[in-house]
Design brief:
Elements lengths: L1 H18 L8 E19 L5 E3 L1 E3 L4 E8 L4 E17 L4 E19 L5 E20 L2 E8 L7 E10 L4 E8 L20 E22 L1
Antiparallel strand pairs: 1-3, 1-4, 1-11, 2-5, 4-5, 5-6, 6-7, 7-8, 7-9, 9-10, 10-11
Length: 221
């Protein structure tokens, strides 16, 4: 079902872009630096636990370098490389809170429509790879933490779809939804007596605001 929705969405978006190709033809290629402040949340369900999910605010480190190609004044696409801090916060019971986050490397591919020099809309797909995992467990006032490279507690490959609106001043707002569970079932370790955390569902999504600034022009016609 998800694949059908994605194909339908991108097919419709592609038709919209083609419909806007009339007018003066231009072609530009340039790089863009982008920052992002993220408000993420999840829906975690676990066997035998009444879990509650808390929104997570992440102002750093979320940074990307993008390569943009504008086919005309009304359409284009971009790709690039991002470093992103994403995760979820889950209350396992009244006294145990679990914070889990990963740093990811991502490769986005997005189509753009609107005014390439002004306000525009973009939507696309991003392949993210979790490279560093950090976990904090709070039991009342006591905290324990662990930091693991390429951990098996989360999925290494985290594909997502996103949509964003950018103003002519470079500010943008983005919504992203991850297509796979964030956590690996059966691989969680909280080391709290009497608490067995085995997530059966761990969807994740976020809303973010950020800023893009154009760096260097490679092609301009």
């Amino acid at each position: 079902m998800k694949k059908l929705l994605l194909l339908t969405f991108f097919g419709f978006f592609g038709l919209q872009v083609m419909a806007q190709e009339a007018g003066t033809k231009t072609k530009e290629m340039y790089t863009v630096s982008a920052t992002e402040t993220i408000l993420s949340w999840g829906n975690v369900e676990a066997t035998g636990l009444e879990t509650a999910n808390i929104a997570r605010f992440t102002p750093f480190i979320n940074f990307g370098q993008q390569l943009h190609v504008d086919f005309s004044e009304k359409s284009g696409f971009y790709t690039g490389l991002t470093v992103r801090n994403v995760g979820i916060i889950t209350d396992l019971n009244d006294s145990v809170r679990l914070k889990q986050r990963v740093y990811t490397l991502g490769i986005p591919v997005a189509l753009k429509a609107g005014d390439m020099a002004g306000n525009l809309f973009a939507a696309g797909f991003e392949a993210e790879f979790a490279i560093n995992y950090k976990q904090k467990v709070f039991v009342n006032d006591e905290k324990s933490k662990s930091n693991i490279w390429f951990s098996d507690r989360t999925n290494i490959f985290l594909p997502s779809v996103f949509a964003e609106v950018k103003s002519k001043y470079g500010n943008y707002i983005r919504f992203k939804y991850y297509l796979t569970d964030f956590l690996q079932e059966g691989n969680q370790k909280v080391n709290v007596e009497g608490v067995d955390f085995n997530p059966t569902k761990s969807t994740m999504m976020y809303v973010s605001v950020g800023y893009m600034i154009r760096n260097r022009d490679f092609v301009k016609k």
